[in-house]
C-alpha cells in the first residue's frame, strides 16, 4: 500500500481525456487503495465491479488492471484476472494488496490479486483480456477497444472525462452512485466516502467471514478457501492475516524436519492459477492428523522463504485444527508429464522478483508447479536423472525426451533453456529406507504426493506413494590405456582428500586413477587437503595425504607416482577452513619427467622466459600471479614443466572459485544473478594472459590447461579463458549428449575441463564417468583424460 501523499504533489495541467467505450452493464463501482495503511479500518485494497444491465455479465478472460497515477517510463499495468460472472444488479469484489494496519477483513472476494494500489492516486481499468495494457496517457487509453471501463482517482493522468475522481485516502474510497450511472467522466461519476465493499453474495465486512472473523459454528467452514489464500501470484493476498476454519482434506503429513501437513480443498475453483492446497506448519508440535482427515484450520497466513533468494512457501502457521471426519477419499492428483509441463522454464523480471507477476501455468513450467503448490501430483515410470543421496532425495524427469544424455541423464546446455521436466523426489515415509538409484534407472510404477518447494532444487514431490527403483545396469566407465607414443594427461577433483580420511576413500579414488583412467602419465588433482584436513592449526603440507594416495594407487595396480605441489599460505586459498586445499601434479617417472626450477612458493609468481635452451618457466612448479586480486580466497593455478619423449609440455592445473552465492535458477529473482562469475572471469583472464605469454615466447608451445573451473562450456568463464583462440576446450569436441562431468539437481553439466594450445593437434579425449551419476560416489566429480600424440602434432 502507498500511504496518503506518497505520490507527491505536482502542478496539474489539462490533458486529453480518456473515454472508454460506454458499457450498458459492467462498470467499476468502487476503488479503494488505503487498505492496511495507517488509520485504515479495512486490511486490504479492493476494486468493486457492478452490473447495471438486465443480464449476467460474463467476466471469463477479463481482468482489472492498475497503473500508478503518474506513470513513469518504467511503470507497467499490473493485472488481476477475473473469472465467473456478475449477476444483474449485483456486485463483484476483487481483493488486492494487504497492509500491516487495519482491523477488518474484506468479505469473501470473488477474485484475488496482490496489487499494492496507491491510497491517493491511480487508475483502474476493467479490461476484456488479461494481457497488460501499454497505454500511459488518457488519449492512448481512450483508443484501446479492450478497455471496458476506466476509473482514474486522485491526480491520475489516465482517467475518463474532465478529471479524475477526488478525495481518495487511507480512509476513503471513490465510488459511483447506487445507480451505477456512467457518463464517462470520473470526476462527475465518483465521489469519496467510507469504503463499502460488497461481494457477489451481497456480503459486506462483518456479514461474511472475510478471512479473520470467528463467527459461525466451530464445525462450519469459514468463507475463505485455500484458492483464496494462494491467489494468482506467488504471494498470498492473505499474508499476515488470520484465516478462520479453512476446509480441506489432509493429503500428507511431515513428521520430521519442518513439521506440518498439507490440506487440499476437494472443491476447486475454475482458475488454473490458484492452487487448491496449502501447507499447515505446526512448529515443534508433531501433527495430530492423518491422511484422509477432513479438517478445518484456523491460523495465520505467511510466506516462508527457505533462503534469501528462493521462492516462498505459502503456509498457515500456529494452527488450530478441527478434525471433522477421517478416512475420506483424497482429491485427484494432477499428472506431471511431457504434455502437462510447459517447455518454457520461468518468467523474467529484469533481475527483479517475479513474485507479483500473475502466474501463467500454461506458459512456464515453474508457474505450472507454483499453481500446484501443496497439491497432490503424480507421475509414472520416470527415468532417474539425479542419483539418490544421503538426504533421501533423487531426481527424475517427467519428460523422457528432454535433452537426454547418452547414459540416461538430462543435459544442461544453456542458461536460456533449463530443463523443465526435472523434479526432485523425497519420501514422507520415515519408516522405510529410501531406495538407492543411479542415473538412468527407472522409478517404476506410480509416485504421488504433495508438491513442495525447498532451497535445494526448488519444487519437489513429497511422496506418500513412492515408485520402485528398477536398476538399468549403469556401469562405471574404463578408458583405454594410452599408446606408447601418447602422453596421457588427466584431471580429477578428489573432494577434500586428506590424510585422516578412511582407507576406503583412498582406495576408491586410487582405483579411479589406476583402473578407470588406466594410469595416466600425468594427473592433476584438485582438492588435496593438508595432512590433518579441517583441523585449523596452521598445518599446510600434504605429504602424508599424498603418500597414502600414491600408495593406494600402487596397490590398485598403478605406477609409483611422484608428486609436485606448492603449499598455500594458511587459510588463503578458500575451501574448508583449515583444510588448505590445493592442486597437485602426480607423474609417472618411468614415462615422463618433471623439470624442476626451484624457488616457487605460495606468494611468488612464475613466468615464461626464453633461454639458449628454449622456453622455460622461472619456477616449476610455480603459481600464476598469486598476489593478483583474482585469486583472493581461491586456489592459485599450479604450473609445471614436463618432458615426454624429448618433447616439452606445460601443464596448468586449476581450481577456480566456486559458484556459491549465485542465485538459483528456480529462485524468485529472474534471470538469476551469477555474482561468482565475475571473479571466475578474472581468473580465466589471468590464465589466458599466461598462456599468451607462453605462446609469444614459442608459438609451438604445447600447453594443457585443465581442472575444476566451476563453470560451464557456454559460460563467460570459458569464453574468457579461450579468448583469441589460445586454447581449445576439448569438451566441445564430444557429441552433445556426452558433454558433462557433474550432476546437480538432475542436470548433467560440465564443470571440469581440459583445454589445449593450438600446437596440440593430435589427441584423443574422454570424460570417464565413474562418480557423478552414481548414488555411491568416491567423489562428486568425474575425471577426464586427454591422450596426446606429440610426434604427430604439427609445427607452425
Our measurement of the CA-to-CA distance between the termini, rounded to an integer number of angstroms, reads 69 Å
Strand tally: 41
Overall mean pLDDT stands at 92
Largest sheet: 7 strands, mixed
Helix content percent band: under 10%
Unreliable stretches (pLDDT < 50, length at least 5) are 1-23, 208-215
Number of helical segments with 4 or more residues: 8
Shape: elongated
Describe this structure as you would to a colleague.
The chain is mostly beta strands and 796 residues long. The protein has eight helices and 41 strands. The strands form nine sheets. Strands 29, 32, 33, 34, 35, 36 and 39 form a seven-stranded mixed β-sheet that branches. A six-stranded mixed β-sheet has the order 8-7-2-1-11-12. Helix 5 crosses helix 6. The longest helix has 21 residues, at 677-697. It is elongated, with a radius of gyration of 32 Å. The N and C termini lie far apart (69 Å). Residues 1-23 and 208-215 have low confidence and may be disordered.
SSE diagram, text form:
Blueprint: E1 26-32, E2 44-51, E3 57-58, E4 63-68, E5 78-81, E6 85-86, E7 91-98, E8 111-112, E9 122-127, H1 138-142, E10 147-153, E11 173-176, H2 186-189, E12 190-193, H3 226-230, E13 242-254, E14 259-264, E15 277-283, E16 294-304, E17 313-325, E18 334-335, H4 365-370, E19 376-386, E20 394-397, E21 422-427, E22 442-454, E23 458-463, E24 468-470, E25 486-497, H5 503-516, E26 522-528, H6 543-555, E27 562-564, E28 582-587, E29 593-595, E30 608-611, E31 614-617, E32 622-623, E33 638-644, E34 647-655, H7 677-697, E35 703-708, H8 716-721, E36 728-729, E37 742-744, E38 747-749, E39 752-756, E40 763-767, E41 784-789
Helix pairs in contact: 5-6
